[in-house]
Write a structure and sequence with these properties.
Ferritin
Length: 200
């Protein structure tokens, strides 16, 4: 994602208020898994889930915007098809995450783009042909790696099973898309895809 770590976390007081919307948690040592239409049962998990969902919505919105330019400017049909797949999947996931924020935490949230994101999109408008495809794939690979790292953290920190299932899917799908774009960069342009040593 755009930040090294998720930074938008609701404060402890807000998390406590969110938790009050759900069933009262018992005093036992083991916390039961979160249930549908209720907030996470631990304050830390509630804070984490809200921050993660908001940040991932923003992150997905950037990928959607990038994919829209790809459909207009890419020259390889294979890349256009991948961009269409990214656009459709991440739009659907944005809607799902917005629904969870509303249903679990009473939060209505719309995607936001930072000034840096908007500057990046402006730069993409200046690229054409091979330069566009190279820069697009290299940028989307970096974008995906950030999402993969955050999805892996989500698997450790989130309570809702629906959310951890989404994070597992994000990791699997985006790793496959990274591999595909790395292959195309090497085959079409003899360029490195920027493969890091690890995802964490």
């Amino acid at each position: 994602m755009r930040k090294n770590r998720i930074s938008k976390r609701i404060p402890a007081a807000a998390a406590s208020a969110v938790l009050a919307l759900g069933a009262v948690v018992g005093t036992g040592a083991v916390t039961a898994p979160a249930v549908a239409d209720a907030p996470a049962q631990s304050e830390a998990a509630a804070s984490y889930e809200v921050g993660f969902l908001q940040d991932m919505i923003d992150h997905h919105a950037m990928a959607v915007a990038m994919s829209q330019t790809c459909l207009q400017k890419a020259t390889h049909q294979e890349l256009k098809e991948l961009c269409q797949s990214i656009l459709e999947a991440q739009q659907q996931e944005i809607g799902q995450m917005q629904t969870w924020l509303h249903d679990w935490y009473g939060i209505t949230y719309e995607p936001k783009m930072s000034e840096g994101d908007m500057r990046s999109m402006d730069r993409f408008e200046t690229y054409t042909g091979a330069e566009y495809e190279i820069r697009f794939m290299q940028s989307m690979i970096r974008h995906h790696w950030a999402a993969v790292r955050e999805a892996e953290e989500c698997l450790e920190s989130a309570e809702h099973a629906e959310l951890t299932e989404l994070c597992s899917n994000i990791r699997e799908v985006q790793l496959a898309e990274i591999s595909q774009m790395q292959t195309w960069l090497e085959q079409w342009y003899d360029r490195s895809g920027g493969r890091p040593a690890a995802t964490t």
